[in-house]
Amino acid sequence: SALTLFLTFSSLLGKVWLMLIILLRMTVVVLAGYPLYQDEQERFVCNTLQPGCSNVCYDLFSPVSHFRFWLIQTVSILLPYAAFSIYVLHKVALYIVRMHCLVHGCKGNKGLSSSKDLKELCRSAVVNRLDCSADNLSVLNFSGAYTVHLFFRTLLEAAFAAVQYFLFGFFVPERFSCYHSPCTSTVDCYISRPTEKSI
């Protein structure tokens, strides 16, 4: 029916969209973020010759490397999706075993011992599906698990955005003023390519 076709197309579109988002994010982080931030500390120039002062100021300016932070963020965002995928695979495997029992009958502990048994089950399930009563077979519904996974992904995105704001802010300043031991006075430090980093 049209509804089935729409649901199939929308779920396929959702998977393609998710992969594009993941690939786009990884591409931006690796190809744009890494070259931009690899010389981050070397180009952090402070107007002082006091030993250790530049390092202390840089640590105050950037407590965590932006690049590593974004890598951790990307991997963390993938964790709920990975958990959801494992859950779906587990439920589908149980469903296939249950169909096997319905179609062939389960005798003792006999199960699916090989991939040949699994292929045979898939063929026989298609051929014999009319023999199974509608009460025994149900359509697997993952909407609840998908909603939970989506909630956790959104929560992680919001948490990482908040952490980024508190660690770095959303704009990179051209100048960073620092006064911390071993600096003997207020020191001005200058960040390389601040406009490009903000963008």
TrEMBL record:
Gene Ontology cellular-component terms listed: connexin complex
Keywords: Cell junction, Cell membrane, Gap junction, Membrane, Transmembrane, Transmembrane helix
Transmembrane domains' residue ranges: 12-34, 69-89, 150-172
A Pfam family of this chain: Connexin
Entries under PANTHER family matching the protein: CONNEXIN, GAP JUNCTION DELTA-4 PROTEIN
Family: Belongs to the connexin family.
Function: One gap junction consists of a cluster of closely packed pairs of transmembrane channels, the connexons, through which materials of low MW diffuse from one cell to a neighboring cell.
Listed name of the protein: Gap junction protein
Source organism of this protein record: Fregetta grallaria (White-bellied storm-petrel)
